[in-house]
Predict the 3D structure of the following.
Amino acid sequence: MPEISIISMILTAILALVCLFLVAAPYFTWSGLFNDEAVGEIPVNSKEVLLTTLNELEFEHKMDKLSDTDYHQLKKQYEIQVTKIMKEEERSSNAKIDDDLMAEVEREIAEATRNYRKQKGES
């Protein structure tokens, strides 16, 4: 029986460590070591999460996993949260639209004033 050489034992150990690293690497993130925030994490109160939860509540109620009182109570709570988020989004979009609209109106007024002054000066 041939003897196992030191070199073959070292190469086997290196191969085993590389395989172990390749298997375990996806479970660890480098950003988690340096940042407290998780990358790509969805906020718990985001609109998408709440709407998905409402959908799941309705499904569980139809499957008779939730009582009527629990379903209506939870549905009302989640709808209130979704409504608040949608109102905040609407306010922020309205503010942006209003700013854009006001800038457009001011440009048109300035252009109309220049045109009027040109016509008045030429006449």
